[in-house]
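Hi all, long-time lurker, first post. I run a small reading group and we've been trying to get comfortable going from sequence to structure in the token notation. Rather than ask abstract questions, I figured I'd post a concrete chain and ask someone more experienced to write out its structure so we can walk through it together at our next meeting. Sequence below, copied exactly:
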Amino acid sequence: MLNTIYKISQSIRKLSHYSCRSVVIKFVRPNTTYTNVFRSQKQKKEEGGEAIKWILLMIPVTSFGLGCWQVYRLKWKLELIDMLQAKSNSVPVDMPTNFEALSNMEFLPVKVRGEFLHDREILIGPRALIEENQALPRTGSLMSDPKKNQGWLVITPFKISETGDVILVNRGWIPKSLRPKEKRQPSMVEGEVELTGVVRLTENRRPFIPKNHPEKGSWFYRDLHQMSAHLNCSPVWLDARGIPDPPEGWPIPNQTRVTVRNEHFSYLVTWYSLSALTAIMWHRYFIRKLPLI
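-- Answer (accepted) --
Happy to help. Here is the structure in token form:
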């Protein structure tokens, strides 16, 4: 009897031993698997963060490169403006009989002889006065200095003596007080005159500038095809340099605007600022391990 009880207890002990061992094995194996998974996920997360780190570094680097490009563009644009200014101040040449040649002569001064047709005169504006000795001429627009220098450009058809062709001549700028034609009677010279003018081509309407209304006599920008059709003349425009001993009320000449868009300085400031800001943020977050805010 005792022998039987001993055998049973031994069997129970063995079973208990195997069961505990089995439980331990089953418990350890899943724990090891989870550890490897967590370790792998952490490693992938670190690798992904490292990739994002270098990808985001491209923002300040690229912005800095674009800023350098705008420095080059600004230098080129300033040289172009200087070239156009020198071109408009060069020695005048004779007006070509073939007006198609004028398409390659913008800003060049030409000489012409003929007479003004004052009865077909129009005004274009409002425009700001360009002063000859002013380093940075004011931009002509509806918003520029209205109380001091706002006025109009006097555009008068001009009949060329040699060919009989009629062209448009910008005689110059007048203030608002001289806009009525009767106040400028002494300036309307009769007979043949010789003048020098700078060739200008047609002008595209800028944003926020109203459309021309020929039927109302409202002209806001230089559309040569529209003006020539309305005034029955050739689509040729000269900015007059004036005439010798101009009479009283003669418009202020030399109103040539070198209209070359130049916003490269603001662009380079924008790109360099973006580069500096994003570089500081990148260094703070990825190098110093600090929050961005």
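A couple of things your group might point at:
The first strand starts at residue 93 and ends at 94.
The chain has a mean pLDDT of 81.
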